[in-house]
Amino acid sequence: MNSVVEDLFTVTEKLHSLLLQPLPKEDDQRDGYIDEVEKLLSERQALIPALGRVTLTAEDKEKGRELVALNQEIEQRLADKQKQIKTDINNFKLKQKQNRKYDNPYDGPTLEGAFFDKRSI
């Protein structure tokens, strides 16, 4: 087998196994998790153009089919992780807004509406 196909398959398997793990709750661990995913994605991105320059054997083509199946699952899991991170960001923004409102309840528009003095119009 070609080393490019083997390397790509190895990196793809590492990425797949990493994405099978749940997203960590703590910020430091989450940042490390995201950095590792980005690193593996960039490694894959660097290896993919090299596939066009090599001659593929039957074994390489079989590995390619496995890579395509893994890639579909990776894409789904990446979309799920992205959705989870967006939800966490939206929840954080909502908490920030609620905390600001709690700290200064008289800031911003009131719910009662406005009072108009008929005599001064």
From TrEMBL:
InterPro entries in the record: FliT
Domain of life the protein comes from: Bacteria
Pfam families: FliT
Localization (cell): Cytoplasm, Cytosol
UniProt keyword list: Bacterial flagellum biogenesis, Cell projection, Chaperone, Cilium, Cytoplasm, Flagellum
Function text: May act as an export chaperone for the filament capping protein FliD.
Family: Belongs to the bacillales FliT family.
Record-given protein name: Flagellar protein FliT
